[in-house]
Design a protein that fits this description.
427 residues; Cytochrome Bc1 Complex, Chain D, domain 2; 3 domains; three-stranded antiparallel β-sheet; two-stranded antiparallel sheet; 17 helices; 4% strand; globular
């Protein structure tokens, strides 16, 4: 056999393998998907259905992405910065030209359950359909009815700006073939009804693992059940593990305090700031106490992980420079012993937010300042001023290293490089 013929046979074999692989990818992307039927005539939604749809939309925190700063409610336009480029949230109001005005309930359901647009194009997983796929059809219909009841806002959607090849349908098809399968929520008969409701909310519409899970190089999480913590690529904050007692587990809290934290943003054992503050502001403060209690039941039952990196036996010795910086900038609010002021300024002594493995959030808070969310239960929260204009990177590192090694705290020091990285990401 000549070498030309051998190369030709090899080329045909390779082409056949590529065609077969493309067929498998296409099949996996259509798995479980049904053809859309004719659009039924619309009927007026009841007040009860609209209220339910609004509540479910709040659970899904649609406002967080689909309302731009200073923009009209759910009219889209907010940029979502990802490691692969920028994605712009779409208009969810019922405008016929730029929003959901010509969508059907079936098409909305397909977007949530299968991650497809009205035209059938694959959606980017910045829209968390890997979680929303678990939403029940009746709940999707209630959400659609509520969105259709909103005032229509004409606001054209902006084109995404993603690096090649991530913006192509072919790349999305491969990603979905690897990491996405349509799913449904199934109650665990061994668990009480409240826990099952919490599982439905946390794993599905709440999409908690979208932040509280590590992502691989292609941006995929380890599944909707993983809540072991991870860096949020959009904002470079660290979303702590919801299962680890060293990070953000609430297993030992009274349930009403978990509800209080999600309802108001502040509780005896913790505050929320940063991205979680936005979640409380836009989403959880609006949920019913029953749904918040259900989420608390689910979160409190998470099994603790096997910790692979135990805390140091002894903390580094706090530096005199760090002590001086703390006295100059922090003691007035957080106290001589890091005891804080209940209901106003959080304690730093014994705080898991201070001592957990990642110091990213501490660096952000010192540089940028901020407030817990303003909620009905805590309308005027006390805040923290930004120190980025005042302190150099080395100063912030010394200050935080002091806090992480004082009053019984035992955590690794913070480096000036850690601060510089956060400052660059912020600017």
């Amino acid at each position: 056999m000549s070498w030309r013929r051998a190369l030709g046979i090899a080329g045909l074999a390779a082409l056949g393998a590529l065609v077969a692989l493309a067929g498998i990818v296409a099949w996996l992307n259509l798995l479980g998907e049904e053809r859309l039927g004719p659009v039924p005539p619309r009927v007026a939604a009841s007040a009860e259905l609209l209220a339910r749809g609004e509540a479910l939309t709040r659970v899904g925190d649609c406002t967080g992405c689909h309302t731009a700063r200073g923009g009209r409610f759910l009219a889209g336009g907010r940029v979502i910065e990802t490691p692969f480029g920028n994605v712009y949230a779409s208009n969810l109001t019922p405008d016929a030209d730029t929003g959901l005005g010509t969508w059907s309930a079936d098409e909305f359901w397909r977007a949530l359950h299968h991650g497809r647009s009205k035209s059938g194009r694959l959606l980017y997983p910045a829209f968390p359909y890997p979680n929303y796929t678990r939403v029940a059809r009746a709940d999707a219909d209630a959400m659609f009815a509520y969105l259709q009841s909103l005032p229509a806002v004409r606001q054209p959607n902006r084109a995404h700006t993603l690096a090649f090849p991530f913006g192509t349908q072919a790349a999305l098809a491969v990603w979905r073939a690897l990491y996405f399968r349509p799913a449904v929520h199934v109650d665990d008969p061994a668990r009480p009804a409240e826990w099952n409701r919490g599982a439905y909310l946390v794993e599905g519409l709440g999409h908690c693992n979208a932040c509280h899970s590590a992502r691989n190089a292609l941006g995929a999480t380890r599944g909707t059940l993983d809540l072991q913590g991870g860096l949020i690529p959009v904002q470079n904050w660290y979303a702590p593990s919801l299962a680890s007692p060293r990070e953000a587990s609430v297993a030992g809290w009274p349930k009403h305090e978990v509800v209080q934290l999600l309802k108001t943003g502040i509780a005896p054992q913790g505050f929320v700031m940063g991205p979680m503050g936005e979640v409380v502001l836009n989403s959880t403060q609006h949920l019913s106490d029953a749904d918040l209690a259900a989420m608390a039941s689910y979160l409190q039952a998470l099994p603790p992980p096997i910790e692979s990196d135990p805390p140091p036996a002894t903390a580094p010795t706090p530096s005199a420079r760090g002590a001086m910086l703390y006295k100059d900038h922090c003691v007035a609010c957080h106290g001589d012993r890091g005891e804080g002021v209940p209901g106003a300024y959080p304690a730093l002594a014994g705080s898991r937010a201070v001592t957990m493995r990642s110091a990213a959030n501490l660096v952000h808070i010192v540089l940028e300042g901020g407030f817990p969310p303003s909620t009905a239960g805590n309308p005027r929260p006390f805040g923290m001023p930004p120190f980025a204009p005042v302190l150099q990177d080395a100063d912030v590192a010394e200050l935080l290293s002091f806090v992480r090694a004082s009053w019984g705290n035992q955590a690794a020091p913070v480096s000036a490089l850690d601060v510089a990285r956060a400052r660059v990401g912020r600017e």
